[in-house]
Specification:
Shape: elongated
Radius of gyration: 40 Å
Low-confidence stretches: none
Mean pLDDT: 77
Distance between the termini: 90 Å
Order of helices and strands: HHHH
Structural class: mainly alpha
Helix content: 55-70%
Largest sheet: none
Number of helices: 4
Strand content: under 5%
Number of domains: 2
């Protein structure tokens, strides 16, 4: 509580009992609690009135709207500048962009490469 340990609070309580006496101590504690409650209420009222005067809530809403717009714009920029994604995206055809005059190659036009298979063994070859 208020950054104080148990022993510090006990020392303050003993000093308060010595100065105020056991008769006046409960009334003093009630008065201290009322003081802290009134101070807290006053501070919250002052904060609310300052926010109203400065239109902080409207400024906050505007800032959030600008933040959303900036996030959306940055996502758009990332999408447009992401080359890897653009290569695999259906909407962006690299071949048609680069070779506008040439038609896309079809399956029949692609050269067929014959594959030669080789057997792998662990036997030692004679020299």
């Amino acid at each position: 509580m208020f950054g104080m340990g148990f022993t510090e609070i006990m020392v303050i309580a003993v000093i308060a009992i010595l100065f105020l006496g056991p008769d006046k101590l409960p009334q003093a504690m009630v008065e201290i609690a009322k003081f802290f409650r009134n101070t807290k209420n006053t501070l919250s009222t002052v904060k609310d009135s300052l926010e109203q005067e400065m239109n902080v809530s409207e400024i906050k809403q505007e800032a959030l709207a600008y933040k959303k717009e900036l996030e959306k714009a940055s996502e758009d920029v990332k999408k447009k500048t992401d080359i890897k994604q653009a290569l695999f995206d259906d909407d962006f055809d690299v071949m048609s962009e680069v070779f506008e005059d040439k038609p896309k190659p079809t399956v029949e036009q692609k050269p067929v490469v014959e594959q030669k298979y080789e057997t792998v063994t662990f036997e030692k070859k004679p020299k």
